[in-house]
Each structure stands twice: as structure tokens, then as C-alpha cells.
Amino acid sequence: MRILVVEDDKDLNRQLTAALSQAGYAVDHAFDGEEGWFLGDTEPYDAVVLDLGLPKKDGLSVLKEWRKAERSMPVLILTARDRWSDKVEGIDAGADDYVAKPFHMEEVLARLRALLRRSAGRASDELVCGPVKLDTRSGAVTVEDVPVKLTSHEYRLLAYMMLHAGRVISRSEIIEHLYDQDFDRDSNTIEVFVGRLRKKLGFDIIETLRGLGYRVPAAGETLPAKSAKSAKSDS
């Protein structure tokens, strides 16, 4: 998943970016309201962490403009304001949740996980597809209860597809939602990651739909008959 952090405090911005990256997210960041508004208006983020007290354009104005433009990504607002009315104003402007400063980083991560689950229609931290289980809270991936070690890019890809199980996901959507602006956005790179995932998982839960993209079966669907152990990658 791809997250935007808009926070003018450079130290806090770096801390948030580092914590989110370590948790397996692709992260872009901005230090003022104008840059934050532009990125949120032009890039398809899965969620935004937005400070209200921003220079150039305040966070509340940024949020209102996004919602007016029908930008629907979940937004978690950060506020140092103590008055309950300020928090209500943020929620009424279109925020999905808020965290008051100072905060524990674990709380921000937990609230983001909840927002991402709700936006995808999920209720649990654990995603399951056949023998494959992925815990979005711990970042652990197992196949038939055996731990599987994935790189950060492989984990992001698997988590995104399992979170959106049952839906066809194009290569362009994967690139837009899983990698930050500095990543080499070559579609061939996605094919390489899909091939690696198939080999590491041992079960081919990732379907290739020629000309359309990839798909992970929804809960209750029969898994593809082929496994990565016995079939060549058709990515």
C-alpha cells in the first residue's frame, strides 16, 4: 500500500516515513499544504497522514479540497489542538480518523491498518487465501503454517493483492499503489516480483489474466490447479 505523509515538522515527518516504510508501506512525503494537496490530488494513495497545522495551506483546507474533488482515500489527521471542536471540524471536513499529538507511533500504525481494512471491506488483520496467511499487524507470511521470508517489495505486492482478493488488478494499478515516486516503474519489474512470489509460496494463488493483470481468488473460491513447483511462471 502507498501512503502520503504531510507534516511540516521535518523530524516528525522523517520518523513517520521511516516507521511506515519499516511496516511495509511505500511512502511519499510533503512538508507543506500546497505540495501535500498537489500529491494527494494527482497520485492514487491508499491512505494519507495529514497534519492540520501546515504552512502555505492548512490541513483542513487541503482535506476539504480533496473531498470536493471527490478524492476518497482514507485520511488520518494529526493535530496538536486540544479543543474537541477542532477534532469534530476535521471529521466533518472528511477525515476518517485522528490522532492527537504527542502520540505513540504504534497508535498511528494501528489506526492506519484499520482504515485500510475498512476501505477494502476487511474486518481482520489476517488475510487468508488457501494455505497462505498474511498478518498485516506483524508482517508475517506463512504457507501451511510455515514462515516464508519475503522482501519488502514482495510483501507489498502480496498484501495488496490479498487485501483486494477477487478483483483483477492491472500492472499500472500495482505500480501506482505499491511503489513511491522514486521507484523504477517498469512493468517488467512487477512480472519479476510475481514470479518470485510464486516460487517462494509454492502455491500459485496468483492468477495471470492476459492483457488485464493479476488476481488472487476470493474467500471460498477454488485455487488454481497449478502450483509454482510444477508449472512455469506465466507472468
TrEMBL record:
This protein's UniProt keywords: DNA-binding, Phosphoprotein, Transcription, Transcription regulation, Two-component regulatory system
SMART domains noted in UniProt: REC (SM00448), Trans_reg_C (SM00862)
Domain Response regulatory: 2-116
GO biological process, one term: regulation of DNA-templated transcription
Entry's Gene Ontology molecular function annotations: phosphorelay response regulator activity; transcription cis-regulatory region binding
Known DNA-binding region: 124-218
Modified residues (4-aspartylphosphate): 51
Record domain OmpR/PhoB-type: where: 124-218
PROSITE patterns to which the protein is assigned, alphabetical: OMPR_PHOB (PS51755), RESPONSE_REGULATORY (PS50110)
Gene Ontology CC: one annotated term: cytosol
Pfam families to which the protein is assigned, alphabetical: Response_reg (PF00072), Trans_reg_C (PF00486)
Protein name from the UniProt record: Two component transcriptional regulator, winged helix family
Species this protein is from: Beijerinckia indica subsp. indica (strain ATCC 9039 / DSM 1715 / NCIMB 8712)
